[in-house]
Structure formats: C-alpha cells, structure tokens
Amino acid sequence: MKVDYIALSVPIFFILIGIELAYTFYKKLNYYRLNDSIANLSQGIGSQIVGLFMKTILFFGYKYIFEHWRLFDLPHNIWVWIILFIGVDFFYYWFHRMSHQINALWAAHIVHHQSEEYNLTVALRQSWFQGWFSWVFYLPLAFIGFDPIMFLTLSSFNTLYQFWIHTRAIKNMGFLEYIINTPSHHRVHHGSNPKYIDKNHAGTLIIWDRMFGTFQKEEEEVYYGITTPLASWNPVWANVHYWVELWQTAQKADGIGDKIRVFIKPPGWFPEKLGGFKSALEIDAANYRKFDANGTTSVVLYVVFQFLIALGTGSVLLFMFAKFGWLTNVLLAVFTVFTLLTCGALLEKKRWLNPAEYLRFILGALIVYHFTQTGFPNQVVYLSVVLLLLSVILFIFLKRSLNHDQKLSSI
Asked: What is the pLDDT of residue 400?
C-alpha cells in the first residue's frame, strides 16, 4: 500500500512551526518575518500541488525498471531495509550535490535556498519542478531490486528527517555532529558566505560530506539566501527566474558549445565573452540588508486571510486528490496557485494586482458553480460562497484604503 507520509505529516509540521515561533517570540530572537514565512509556505503548497499531478508518472519509471530489469529478488527483512536506507541517503547526497554543481539542476533547487531567514518554514520552501528529475538519481536502486514501496517509504522519511534541521534554536549536538546531519551542518548549507557555498549536502548522514570532501563546520555567522537575492514574494517567479537568467545568458553566448555549457556548468560560470567565471563575493556586513517589501496592516491582514484560504484549498486537494475528478483537481489547483500569486503581489504592491484579483474572484465563482453541478455537499457550497463574498467585500474596502493612503502620500 502506497502511503503519502509527507502529506500525513503536514499537521505535525505546523505544530512544530508554532512551537518554534512561540519560542523565538518569547526569547525575542526575530527568526521569523510574516512576509518571508508566507512566501516559504506558498512554495511548499505549490510544490505539493504540482507533485500531485506528477508523482504517478515519475513513480512509474522506478516501478517499470523494478518489474522488468531488476537484477535480484530481495527479501523484505530488516537488513534489506537498513541497506536501502543507506542507499537512499547515498544517492540523495549525489542528487543534492549535483543540484548545486549543474546550472540546469540548480535552476530548480535554487528555490529552497532563496529565503534570507532560517526557520522551520524554510524546510517547506520546496521547488515545484525538482521532482521531475531527482527520481533519476535513485534508479540504480530499482535495477538492484529494491521494492518500490520500500523505496518510497524510506525516501519520504529521508525528506521528513530534514524538516527539523531547519532551525537556529538548536546549536551544537556534541558527538552526533560527526554522524548525522544536524541544524548546525544544515545552517552552513544554506549560507551565502563564500566559504559555506556548496557544502554539507547530506540528507540524514553527514558521513558522505566527510568522505567526499564537501564538509564545512559552522564557524562565523551564517548569512542566509542566495548570492543574488530573489527580492520578490512571487512564488511563480521564484521557480522560473533562474531559468530566465540562463536563457538570457545562452542567447548572448557565441556558438552552440557555449550555449550548452551555460546549462551544464556550475552556477557562476559564464563564457569568456561574458567575463568568465564569477565567484561569490564576501558578505558586506555593514551594508547587508534583507528584502522586506511589506504592506499596511490592512494589506497584511487581507493577505493572511487569503493565504489561509489557499492553505485550506491546497490541503483539501492534497487529501482528496484521488477522489475528485480531473476538472475539480485542476480548478482547485489553479485557484490555489493564483491565490498564492496575488498574496505576493499584494505585499509588493504590484500594478497588475487588481485585474489578477478580479480574475481570481471569477475563477472562484466558476468553482462554486462547478460544485453545484457535480453534487458537492451543500455545506461545501455555502462555505465557498461565504468565503468568496467575504473576499470580494474585503478587497473593495482594501482598495479604498490603499487609494486613501496613496492620496495622503502624494500631498
């Protein structure tokens, strides 16, 4: 039986985020910012939604190789589970390392590193497209003969393990620092300091980094994020911006060879015509500033309300995907992503916000109509209507407030 352990763990994720948030608030540590946290969680919701439409297709590749080309018929005893655990962790290390050393792979993985904070919401900041290629790295396990369900189980737990290490609340863990991946090790991995870049790629066991020369101990203060900050709360742009940069660079390159190298060389590589390799610069602590575009209190409250709607529709989709029809799934997925997109646009005061929000309301109305035509319970229809009407009313008042603020600021 195939169980989605990551989906089942979502409530636990939010409980732990709440505990860390309360702890950091009590200690006045300022590890959280609302805009950054919403952006991180938006990426997580989007990643899960896109994954729903792709998981079956990607799992088919592993399953096909196991059923037709496996070399051994392995039992399901404890030793095989242990060996598979080590194998999953080993191939995760190489997938993760290559995702930092090949531009085309980094273009997807970069999403996880964009946050300039480091807290448990960052663990949920996942690429929407990374799963399209990461599964290829694990295919040797299928050839050997490791059962697909066993593989999915241990792969899920490898991912789940990495949730708790995205915290600054836990410092050094003594002798465990030599064996497992810890918060200290992973803080290094998320650093944009030149000495920390491309270090500590481990999933569960830090031994791979120690064996293959990519280990770095946490020493000076870590500055989180990427070397060229994203400076946006737009979840769609976060997933495509580096592809756009690569494409623009390839267009400027001479010859097919350099155009291809743009995508397969490490981040920072440029053709000689464009100046050659550009190393990361040292952090200028005196002038370092985090991206912090935000809105008025009314904007923030409206964003939180809409984000909760997106979280709700995304959660329903996550747990009911197999029971809904394809049209219902597509409508809910598009609406959820659209809502996350407008949340970012509100915080950044984008000019295209108004037409985008009106289009989202129209989409919401279509979903309500679809519910009435496909036999959804009356309670679901009534709740959808109430939330839609409340959103429209709140947005009208929000627009008046924004227009008033603009008039005052122009005086």
From this structure: 78
